[in-house]
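[Discussion] Sanity-checking designs against the backbone

I'm trying to build intuition for which residues belong where. Below is a structure token string of 85 positions. I'd appreciate it if someone posts a full sequence so I can compare it with mine line by line.
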């Protein structure tokens, strides 16, 4: 069974950041080669809408069949709101 790895915008952007590039790109190579499943939330997708195009393009390189989408629950949103306040 392939591992499922949750990824957020910091990891996606890390593919273009000198400090995190090596690790982030290695992870995305696993997603592209079908050796791991990228799990991504609708919140991350929303954040990516405002990201530079080169950051958005990182996600577009992963085949759709290697991506599992996670819907943000009301409970998770409430927890995040409490954390931020």
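Best answer:
Here's mine. Compare freely.
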């Amino acid at each position: 069974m392939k591992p499922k790895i949750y990824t957020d915008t910091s990891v996606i952007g890390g593919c273009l950041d000198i400090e995190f590039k090596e690790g982030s790109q290695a992870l995305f190579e696993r997603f592209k080669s079908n050796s791991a499943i990228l799990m991504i939330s609708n919140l991350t997708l929303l954040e990516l809408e405002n990201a530079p195009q080169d950051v958005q393009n990182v996600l577009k390189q992963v085949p759709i069949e290697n991506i599992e989408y996670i819907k943000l629950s009301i409970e998770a949103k409430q927890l995040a709101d409490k954390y931020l306040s």
